[in-house]
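User: tokens in, sequence out, please.
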């Protein structure tokens, strides 16, 4: 019989993909989850300061519901500090760290300087957690590759000898995505609708997308397009201004309420990514589930998300986005046939299909930890 655990879920940045992940887990799990969250803003302050404020909330929950069986913490927190603040009242539950992203391999824009203090928080979190979950194998492996150089760059008292132990705690546990509400359509919009559904920030490389559309428009290729994602109203106006005369073909820009976004997905013919950074790709999974033809770079997490049988039809080589988008727009019906079955393949990321993996894995960690505690108790009694 499956165990129902009391899970304490820490989400210091409750917005966007972090919020969707937390809410999806709470909705579908068999376990009892108590969520402690902070608004999704001031991310550096969340990393530096949320440990104390979340510890205060933790004490309230412990007083009301008792000690948790297990802790699941999203990565934008100083986990070691939080454990220090809560040690007098939380007991000793196993702690799982979920890495949505990390600062060691996150690209830095031209106007920014790397912040090593954030990288060290990531490292300490991984060192103290009992397990570390990653949303993709690409994310896990790219971080493993970056860690040796990072750990060597210290004045003395190196942590390098802890690296193997940390790596042994790493597991890939993909993000669950709410896909049951997304309808697919085989119809083709006229002119076709091209979707770019990402944050309007440097790491998503929107300039490359703009350049491609401008070139295709100059060639006389007809299309409408939408630019959606978690952007401020100011960003939305800035987006419109960057497209110039193309703005007359822009059907939507900026953040959309969920119902409107799902409606847009059902009308989308082509979804495009120009990203320099992507640790998973929820928005791409959503668009593919709606039947969109993907135009994606063959890098990052995308080759992991898309099964290999479709790679030749989905991925463009470096600098090849414009050429592939032209090919697709020139022959939409055939390209739809090329990627037939891909939307069904995305269902493996649906929360209804991944939740058992999450639930069983949490239970497994709890039972292993419980067994270790029982062994320690018995050894202690023998010593007495």
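Assistant: Sequence out:
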């Amino acid at each position: 019989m499956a165990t129902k655990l009391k899970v304490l879920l820490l989400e210091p940045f409750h917005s966007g993909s972090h919020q969707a992940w937390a809410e999806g887990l709470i909705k579908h799990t068999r376990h009892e989850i108590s969520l402690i969250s902070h608004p999704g803003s001031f991310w550096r302050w969340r990393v530096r300061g949320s440990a104390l404020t979340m510890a205060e909330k933790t004490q309230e929950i412990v007083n009301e519901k008792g000690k948790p069986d297990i802790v699941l913490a999203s990565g934008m927190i100083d986990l070691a500090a939080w454990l220090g603040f809560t040690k007098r009242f939380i007991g000793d539950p196993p702690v799982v760290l979920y890495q949505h992203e990390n600062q060691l391999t996150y690209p830095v824009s031209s106007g920014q300087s790397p912040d090593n203090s954030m990288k060290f928080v990531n490292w300490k979190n991984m060192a103290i957690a009992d397990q570390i979950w990653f949303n993709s194998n690409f994310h896990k492996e790219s971080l493993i590759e970056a860690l040796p150089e990072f750990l060597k760059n210290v004045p003395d008292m190196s942590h390098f000898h802890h690296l193997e132990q940390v790596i042994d705690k790493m597991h890939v546990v993909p993000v669950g995505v709410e896909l049951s509400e997304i309808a697919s359509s085989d119809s083709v919009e006229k002119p076709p609708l091209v979707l770019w559904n990402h944050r309007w920030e440097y790491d998503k490389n929107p300039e490359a997308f703009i350049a491609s559309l401008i070139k295709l428009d100059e060639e006389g290729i007809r299309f409408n397009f939408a630019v959606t994602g978690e952007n401020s109203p100011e960003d939305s106006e800035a987006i419109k201004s960057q497209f110039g005369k193309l703005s007359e073909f822009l059907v939507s820009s900026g953040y959309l309420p969920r119902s409107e976004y799902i409606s847009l997905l059902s009308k989308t013919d082509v979804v495009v990514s120009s990203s320099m950074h992507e640790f998973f790709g929820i928005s791409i999974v959503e668009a593919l589930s709606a039947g969109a033809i993907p135009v994606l770079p063959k890098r990052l997490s995308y080759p992991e998300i898309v099964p290999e049988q479709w790679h030749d039809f989905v991925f463009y080589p470096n600098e090849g986005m414009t050429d592939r988008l032209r090919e697709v727009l020139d022959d939409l019906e055939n390209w739809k046939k090329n990627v037939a079955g891909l939307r069904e393949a995305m269902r493996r990321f649906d929360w209804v299909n991944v939740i058992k993996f999450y639930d069983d894995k949490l239970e497994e960690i709890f039972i292993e930890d419980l067994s270790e505690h029982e062994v320690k108790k018995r050894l202690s009694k023998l010593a007495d």
